[in-house]
Write a structure and sequence with these properties.
heterodimer; A: about 260 residues; alpha/beta; four-stranded antiparallel sheet; B: about 400 residues; alpha+beta; 2 domains; eleven-stranded mixed sheet; elongated
């Protein structure tokens, strides 16, 4: 497999959307666990980056801290210029409602609502009227290629289609950053490849996306790869994905089994 | 960024969010709402039934009239039975506002179906002389045959009270039908309907005053005088009756108002309500525990949903409101079903009994209010737990 690495791109080149500065996270208790030991990186607007590491490397903790679902023990996290360590719980919720989109491995779709309702719920807590939410949801579903599946329930959709619905839900309202946690983890190889291409396409159209994964091959196909091990960043490289065209996805990936998180 | 308040969900969104649990776990929601429904139905039905029966009794009292007063012979200062003077009915009818005066006088005669009945089988019945307008005065009428009239009053003719007729085994009037009164054959001319205001008439065999004097050794003195007066003047008439009936010794006369006992009975009927309401409240409480149980399980089961909602930007307040709202919705659902069931039960029972259907506002409003309060109480703790759950913990799937 051919991999071309270059130096890490200058963080100042694009407007920073997400900044982590000396972030540490430890869980106190009888056996204190230090999950993150000083993590620094900056995600600029329009980036598509992978955070890759094995189980127990601190990926999940990092995802939660990037997504403001958890607070760092030390260090600073800035989302679109805002120091989230100083925000109240309520302000964080608001930030998540308007600036951050999440995609989860398990999709987390409501089985009893249509695809459109599921996507529209991405803006449920952002003070947008239902009519606007539904209009934007229809657009977002169009962006992920599911315009024809608007009225279907998740149970009537394939795994790949469900994840597309979840991605549309993350994209609705045009958040500053989309955090995708093992987005292909529950999918067969073909669906995974399709989701991968979708993420690339969405990124080309301007979305800032961070993919958290344990899949090194997937990470290798994204423009930037941040490797994490034992709570520390061990590599942060830009990759020339255009030169990977010859070996791209489609059949390349082994079927992914669920990694226990 | 505008700080300090969270985005309020609109009403339609709230309704959707509150009903998530109901839509996704229908069976469970229905069963836990059922507990509340049973409790509320029990309370509504108890209140509805007692109010309906009370209304029926009161309308019966209205129909019978509250303007009937009875004058009976009392006792003298020595404790012996006093007699009413024969002039008493005439004196009473001279009181202004008195419209009707009728009387009965008890005789010592016994009554038998025929001359073969042993003398001890008196059936506990009484033979009384009756004035001719008695049925109207005590709000009854003739079920069969005819009442005494000026002609039959002095003939050996008798009219049976409803109970007397049953005990004698007579339910039809045949020409020539006779019974034995005081050793004399009397022809039965009629049977009365029950007289709710004067049960003593039901137990009596009535004959005319002249006939009683002629064949039964009756002394002509009335023992009970029934007085109908203008309804608004009843109390004034009441005060005058003893003096009019026996001017010489008014203390030997006792005066009563029969409708007063029916009113007391209506009040007594509702005394059992407390017990049944208590049972309903226990059912309601158990229903509340059911709702609380459902909500606790729901919060545990729906951790991923809570995590997702927090990731989508829900505040703790949103989560708390959602689960509290769900609990209230659940028990209100039970409350509405319970009120409908309770009202239906009341309607069916009251219709069968021929009562008016009355469900007091207290019953249905109280039922809904109780359901609301129980839902809020039952949902509070689970809602607080759901809101306190850290998003990271909620998203950690098993």
């Amino acid at each position: 497999m051919k991999e071309i690495t270059t130096e890490r791109p200058d963080a100042g080149a694009a407007e920073p959307v997400l900044v982590l500065d000396a972030v540490r996270k430890s869980y106190p208790g009888e056996n204190p666990v230090v999950a993150l030991r000083g993590v620094d990186f900056t995600i600029g607007r329009g980036e598509l980056a992978a955070i890759v590491g094995p189980s127990g490397s601190g990926k999940s903790t990092l995802l939660h801290i990037m997504g403001t679902l958890d607070r760092p023990s030390e260090g600073v996290v800035r989302v679109m210029g805002e120091d989230v360590t100083r925000l109240s719980d309520r302000e964080l919720a608001r930030l998540r409602a308007t600036r951050i989109g999440f995609v989860f491995q398990q999709f987390f779709l409501s089985e009893f609502d249509s695809a459109l309702e599921n996507v529209a719920d991405g803006l449920l807590y952002s003070g947008v009227s239902r009519a606007v939410r539904r209009t934007q949801a229809a657009e977002a579903l169009g962006m992920v290629g599911l315009a024809h599946r608007i009225g279907h329930r998740p149970s009537q959709l394939s795994g790949g289609e469900r994840q597309r619905v979840a991605i549309a839900r993350a994209l609705i309202g045009n958040p500053g950053i989309v955090l995708a946690d093992e987005p292909t983890g529950n999918l067969d190889s073909n669906s995974a490849a399709a989701i991968f291409s979708l993420l690339l396409e969405l990124n080309r159209n301007g979305a800032t996306i961070v993919v958290i994964t344990h899949d090194r091959e997937l990470a290798a196909r994204l423009p930037r790869r941040i490797e994490i091990l034992d709570g520390q960043i061990v590599a942060d490289v830009a990759q020339d994905i255009d030169n990977l065209a010859g070996v791209t996805p489609a059949v390349g990936w082994p079927a992914r089994t669920t990694e226990g998180r | 960024m505008n700080r300090g308040f969270d985005y309020r969900l609109r009403l339609s969104d709230l309704a959707r969010v509150f009903s998530v649990g109901l839509r996704t776990r229908r069976m469970r929601a229905a069963l836990s709402a059922l507990g509340i429904a049973i409790g509320v139905a029990a309370m509504v039905a108890v209140l509805g039934l007692s109010t309906s029966s009370q209304a029926a009794l009161l309308s019966e009292i209205d129909r019978l009239g509250t303007n009937l007063l009875t004058v009976t012979k009392g006792t003298n200062v020595l404790g012996q039975a006093a007699e009413l003077p024969t002039t008493a009915p005439g004196m009473i009818s001279r009181i202004g506002s008195v419209n009707e005066v009728e009387s009965t006088g008890t005789t010592n005669a016994d009554v038998y179906r025929n001359d073969l009945i042993p003398a001890i089988n008196t059936n506990g019945l009484q033979v009384s002389a009756a004035s001719l307008g008695l049925p109207a005065a005590v709000s009854t009428s003739v079920a069969r045959g005819a009442f005494l009239n000026a002609a039959t009053a002095s003939q050996p003719a008798a009219v049976l009270g409803s109970v007397a007729a049953r005990r004698l085994g007579i339910d039809e009037i045949d020409p020539g039908l006779r019974i034995r009164l005081g050793g004399q054959w009397f022809y039965v001319s009629g049977i009365l309907r029950p007289a709710d205001l004067a049960p003593e008439v039901d137990n009596a065999v009535l004959v005319g005053y002249p006939a009683a004097e002629k064949w039964l050794g009756f002394n002509g003195r009335p023992s009970t005088i029934y007085v109908r007066s203008d309804t608004e003047r009843v109390n004034d008439v009441y005060a005058l009756l003893a003096y009019a009936a026996n001017p010489r010794s008014p203390s030997e006369v006792s005066v009563s108002r029969p409708s007063a006992t029916l009113v007391a009975r209506a009040a007594a009927d509702s005394a059992f309500n407390g017990l049944f309401l208590g049972l309903g409240a226990v059912a309601l409480l158990v229903g509340g525990v059911g709702v609380a149980n459902t909500m606790v399980i729901s919060v545990l089961e729906r951790r991923p949903e809570i995590g997702l909602r927090r990731a989508l930007g829900a505040t703790k307040g949103h989560i708390r409101t959602q689960f509290l709202g769900e609990a209230v919705l659940l028990s209100m659902l039970g409350g509405v079903v319970g009120v409908v069931t309770g009202v239906a039960a009341t309607a069916v029972f009251a219709t069968v009994k021929g009562w008016l259907i009355v469900v007091p506002a207290l019953a249905w409003a109280g039922g809904l209010g109780a359901a609301l309060a129980i839902g809020a109480t039952a949902g509070l703790l689970p809602a607080i737990r759901a809101a306190r759950m850290a998003p990271t913990e909620a998203l950690r799937t098993v």
